[in-house]
Amino acid sequence: MSTTGNEPTISSYAKAPAKTITAGGITFAYRELGTKGGIPVVFFTHLAATLDNWDPRIVDPIAANRHVITFDNAGVGASTGKVPGTIEESADDAYLFIKALGFDKIDVFSFSLGAMIAQDLAIKHPDLVRKLVLTGTGPRGGRDMDKVVGTTYWDILRATLTRSDPKEFLFFSRNAVGKAAGKAFVNRLKERTIDRDKDISLKAFQTQLKAIQRYGRSKPSDLSRLTQPTLIANGDHDRMVPSILSEDLHRRIKGSELIIYPDSGHGGIFQYHEAFAPVAARFLALEDA
Hints:
The chain is an alpha/beta fold and about 290 residues long. The chain has a single domain, classed as 3-Layer(aba) Sandwich (Rossmann fold), CATH 3.40.50. It is built from 10 helices and 8 strands. It has helices at about 55-65, 85-100, 115-125, 150-160, 165-170, 175-190, 200-215, 245-250, 270, 275-285, and strands at about 20-25, 25-35, 40-45, 70, 105-110, 130-135, 230-235, 255-260. A hairpin with a 2-residue loop joins β1 and β2. The protein is globular and about 50 Å long. It starts with 17 loop residues before the first strand and ends in a 6-residue tail after the last helix.
């Protein structure tokens, strides 16, 4: 393990110390919080995201009772290496990171691109993953997933013209409720004021986008192989990864649970964090470990 029992317990993501660990020639940047011991919850993040892009209103409630770990994918933020050209290769990198930390079993909380990586990880290493939370995502080969490139660039342009954060357009509806939720979300991401992560480079971002496009155009995975308890969530109007793909995941992953939040988009779990965080925390509880 990379940590010791003598460290103080950190309960706030805004105060989680920045750490690194090297595996396979890659130095991974990560943060951890919550009570250490047992099965950790590893967070897999979204397109273009660094450690600073996790909503503390999601992370902190889960970390109240669990050991939580977030990390930068290879080639992103403060992690070294190059962004892989495929989702499967990103899953291989994630496996390197998890094993370097010394874990043989994890729970997964994932969003968007991170949930695509998590699916590939769980299929390739089924004994590693105990529970899966898949949010704002879809299956390999999902219909219209490859259109994310055009949607992303269009919303970046719209955000630039209005001097806004692109996530306000990409994650939230452009009605009054969505606009307010988007601004609140972006403000929460600024709560950490010291030791912030590096932004993703343009080249790394473009490589991730192409990997998602390739994933959307690939042959579907056999999701019947996912037998872990799985919680799926999204908004009802996801423009990045069509909401219907969450329903597709639900149909194809036996025994999975599905939550679709009304009047919300790709970032539905962030807009409805007060409702979703307790549900996710209960789902990830350790009673059946």
